[in-house]
Specification:
Largest sheet: 9 strands, antiparallel
Number of domains: 2
Number of helices: 6
Structural class: alpha+beta
Distance between the termini: 73 Å
Order of helices and strands: HEEEEEEHEEHEEEEEHEEHH
Helix content: 25-40%
Strand content: 25-35%
Length: about 250
């Protein structure tokens, strides 16, 4: 081996060792942050009725004129996510039959609880359209614009008689931690690294998703109804809030 190659190898191994020591030190000394969503002593169960966790995210039972029911955690979700993950899942139903699913995944000490939702949709056969950042006006605890990631996706279906069609879904998500909100996965990762480096605090990020199914051509109307549900529900379970709007600052 040439001397220069050996020098680079030793330098590289030194850097790897230093980085490993740095990570081990921070993992040993890190503190868990405060969740940006309400957690209550209400048990979560899986689809077989087995106890998952004694706590859950406190999603509101009543939103607008919608009724709701708690949804159990699927076996696939439990297989993929860490044991210290906390959940909140409700299905909201309007008097006209329109349904909106609201789900929250809250990480514990294992940060792998949070991941990009696009991976899950693609993995179960949904074809995703280009996504876009949108905003939802929130009125409490003060008026602000909640930034969310909006995506639409398609999935083919076929009836027992052979009739074929396409189902659409409007899927909206964002991330929340203690005093922090973002719709962008990359920004969440940067903020998590920043907080851990500067303060030794591993923020307990939560991933919030709201989704509604529809037929092709009904995406805009579905998104409008999802925004109404988010605007009414978010102040009831979300502790973090965005910066007050100009109107709120200067009444």
């Amino acid at each position: 081996m040439k001397r220069s190659s050996l020098i680079f190898l030793v330098a590289g191994l030194t850097l790897i060792g230093a980085a490993s020591a740095f990570l081990v030190h921070h993992q040993a000394h890190q503190k868990l942050g405060t969740p940006g969503v309400k957690v209550v002593p209400v048990a979560s169960y899986d689809t077989e009725g087995k106890l998952i966790m004694t706590n859950s995210v406190d999603l509101p039972e009543k939103v607008l004129n919608y009724t709701s029911e708690i949804r159990p955690i699927t076996q696939d979700t439990l297989r993929w996510l860490p044991k210290d993950t906390t959940y909140g899942q409700r299905l909201y139903k309007a008097p006209d039959g329109f349904e909106v699913a609201l789900n929250v995944v809250l990480m514990g000490a294992d940060r792998t609880s949070i991941h990009r939702p696009e991976w899950c949709l693609s993995g179960v056969g949904w074809a995703i359209d280009p996504q876009e950042v949108a905003t939802v006006p929130i009125s409490e605890p003060h008026p602000y614009q909640l930034e969310v990631m909006k995506l639409t996706a398609s999935h083919p279906w076929e009836t027992a008689t052979g009739e074929k069609g396409v189902q659409r879904v409007v899927f909206v998500y964002w991330f929340v931690a203690d005093h922090e909100l973002t719709a962008k996965p990359g920004q969440r990762m940067r903020w998590m690294a920043r907080d851990l480096l500067l303060s030794g605090v591993l923020q307990r990020w939560a991933y919030v998703a709201c989704a509604g199914y529809c037929n092709p051509g009904q995406e805009d109307a579905t998104f409008s109804r999802i925004k109404e549900v988010i605007a009414a529900a978010a102040p009831q379970f979300q502790l973090a809030a965005g910066s007050p709007t100009a109107l709120a600052r200067n009444p």
